[in-house]
Design brief:
Radius of gyration: 18 Å
Shape: globular
Structural class: mainly alpha
Largest sheet: none
Oligomer: single chain
Helix content: 55-70%
Length: 292
């Protein structure tokens, strides 16, 4: 039975049984809450559908957040993709569209899936939906990859944090990016060991990222960090699938993230008292929304 104490533990269990990490996670979750596996699967399938709907609703040129600070960027990115003008092709372009769309819908008070948080909600949907559409993957495989992502998220939450207020944005967009990378590797047919390397690489690339929301709102720079987070997940998955290992094991990276978060001053942990929130423009935007 799976325990979410370490990534290495997940890998060894999957290797020992010759089964996918997603299958083991679904089985464990069903046993833990004493419900049929298909019932648990159906709940995850519904979450995937909400992700799809959030993408569709978020690609709206007129979408704006309540503050008026953000909105419409997913639509602009989509125009670039459809015109064939993206630098990195339609796969990454489509992922950026989806990440922006879900994040912007969140800022506009739409219905999203916290994955694992609202501030990082666009990364996992963008990753799994983009690869699924690009390769024409069956829905069941796409849904099951979310169980793999969730297993990684549970390890991170248990050993470090998924809260920006506790560990900075490395704990939110970093964790989501690592979870997305794990899902991508499984969807692409990678091994459990490759999943571990992808998790480590993704987290290392965002290690130390501060949480500094302008005006204290989950909009600037959060929305564009979701786009950066899915790009990072794709990079990590690509490297791992190519057989490129992380020199530092994933569990050590997670512990390093915890230590870095503990060392961050409060001003860089979702208080809007430092970083981009305290730039001249950040302060001006805060006054624009809330007044003097």
């Amino acid at each position: 039975m799976l325990r979410y104490e370490s990534i290495e533990g997940l890998i060894k269990e999957a290797e020992a049984t010759g089964r996918l990490l997603s299958d083991l996670t679904l089985e464990q979750q069903a046993a833990q809450i004493e419900r049929p596996a298909e019932e648990i699967y159906e709940g995850m399938r519904c979450s995937l559908q909400v992700m799809r709907e959030a993408v569709a609703e978020g690609i709206d040129p007129d979408l704006r957040s309540a503050s008026g600070l953000t909105g419409g960027t997913a639509w602009r990115m989509q125009q670039q993709v459809e015109a064939g003008k993206t630098l990195c092709g339609p796969m990454l372009g489509g992922a950026l569209v989806r990440a922006l769309a879900v994040s912007e819908l969140n800022a506009a008070m739409g219905r999203i899936v916290a994955a694992p948080t609202a501030g990082s909600c666009g990364i996992i949907p963008a990753a799994v939906l983009s690869l699924s559409e690009e390769r024409g993957l069956p829905e069941r495989e796409t849904v099951m990859s979310l169980f793999t992502a969730s297993a990684v998220g549970m390890v991170i939450a248990q050993n470090a944090s998924i809260s920006g207020a506790q560990g900075g944005c490395q704990a939110e967009c970093g964790s989501a990016s690592a979870m997305a990378a794990a899902a991508l590797v499984e969807l692409a047919g990678g091994t459990p060991r490759m999943i571990g390397h992808a998790v480590a690489i993704a987290l290392k690339n965002i290690l130390g990222l501060v949480c500094d929301p302008v005006a204290g709102l989950v909009e600037i720079p959060c929305i564009k960090r979701n786009a950066g987070g899915v790009a990072n997940a794709l990079v990590a998955a690509e490297l791992a699938l190519a057989g490129i290992p992380s020199a530092i094991p994933p569990d050590e990276v997670i512990l390093a993230m915890k230590r870095v978060g503990d060392l961050m001053p409060a001003a860089l942990r979702e208080t809007a008292e430092g970083g981009l929130a305290q730039t001249p423009t950040g302060c001006a935007l805060c006054r624009q929304v809330f007044g003097e």
